[in-house]
TrEMBL record:
The lineage of its organism: Bacteria, Candidatus Wildermuthiibacteriota. InterPro entries: ATP_synth_csu_bac/chlpt (IPR005953), ATP_synth_F0_csu (IPR000454), ATP_synth_F0_csu_DDCD_BS (IPR020537), ATP_synth_F0_csu_sf (IPR038662), ATPase_proteolipid_c-like_dom (IPR002379), F/V-ATP_Csub_sf (IPR035921). Residues 9-72 form the V-ATPase proteolipid subunit C-like domain. Belongs to the ATPase C chain family. It is a multi-pass membrane protein. It comes from Candidatus Wildermuthbacteria bacterium RIFCSPHIGHO2_01_FULL_49_22b. This is ATP synthase subunit c. Key component of the F(0) channel; it plays a direct role in translocation across the membrane. A homomeric c-ring of between 10-14 subunits forms the central stalk rotor element with the F(1) delta and epsilon subunits. It comes from the Bacteria. It is found in: Cell membrane; Membrane. Pfam families: ATP-synt_C. The gene is atpE. CDD domains: ATP-synt_Fo_c. Its main location: membrane. GO terms for molecular function: lipid binding; proton-transporting ATP synthase activity, rotational mechanism. Keywords: ATP synthesis, Cell membrane, CF(0), Hydrogen ion transport, Ion transport, Lipid-binding, Membrane, Transmembrane, Transmembrane helix, Transport.
Length: 75
């Protein structure tokens, strides 16, 4: 019983802390992209493309944290 509780706490910490970094990073990234588009609207297509690519990489880190949390929980 105690092992299951510890696994649940470990999984919760893994996904919670693992999603914190990418969440903050995506927020900063989107804010800076909006600033860049505001300063130079002609470059909005290039900025948007780079922003979406960077968001995909940040989300991949959160998915790794989810996988680790699932492994902790069910193994």
């Amino acid at each position: 019983m105690e092992l299951e509780v510890l696994k649940s706490i470990g999984a919760a910490l893994a996904i919670g802390l693992g999603a914190l970094g990418p969440g903050i990073g995506i927020g900063i990234l989107a804010g800076k992209a909006m600033e860049a588009i505001g300063r130079n609207p002609e470059a909005s297509q290039k900025v948007q493309t780079s922003m979406i690519l960077a968001i995909a990489f940040a989300e991949a880190i959160a998915i790794y944290a989810l996988v680790v949390a699932l492994i902790i929980k069910f193994v």
